[in-house]
Design goal:
The protein is mainly α and about 150 residues long. Helices cover about 60% and strands about 0% of the residues. The protein contains 6 helices and no strands.
């Protein structure tokens, strides 16, 4: 909207503005990704609440120096893991088959706008958000999962 009202400048292609149809397309696919991530969160929260997945409670976290050290380690390690996961997932999606049928939707945006970054095919979102799967095996605070 800022571009259409001339409240912001275009850095890459000043004369090229996304059409309302393109923005609606990007918003729709971004929303599908947000719904998918929310579903991951709901599943994990349900599994923690029902005791199907181990986690470290806040009381246990603050009472144990080992649990506190483990959490400090995860605060540093999880962003590093997610960066590696994103890199290799993205390289994988550039294989011809996956690029043609899945990842090309993301690369259709030739002049980016706020929703183009998460405008991905639902299969790509599934693969991208699979970075949460180590939380199944690593007992941690649920807040670390959201980190």
């Amino acid at each position: 909207a800022l571009y259409h009202w001339n409240w912001a400048r275009r850095k890459f292609k000043p004369d090229n503005r996304p059409t309302p149809g393109r923005m609606l397309h990007n918003i729709t696919y971004t929303l599908l990704g947000a719904i998918q991530m929310a579903m991951w969160e709901v599943v994990f929260m349900h599994m923690w609440a029902t005791g199907k997945l181990p986690y470290i409670s806040d009381a246990a976290l603050l009472a144990s120096p080992l649990a506190l050290a483990w959490t400090a380690f995860l605060v540093i390690a999880i962003p590093v893991f997610r960066d590696f996961h994103f890199y290799f997932a993205h390289r994988f999606l550039h294989l011809r088959f996956f690029y043609k049928f899945v990842h090309s939707l993301h690369h259709r945006n030739t002049d980016i706008e706020p929703f183009s970054g998460m405008c991905m095919h639902p299969v790509e979102h599934l693969y991208y958000f699979s970075s949460v799967l180590p939380s199944i095996y690593l007992p941690c605070s649920p807040l670390i999962f959201l980190w």
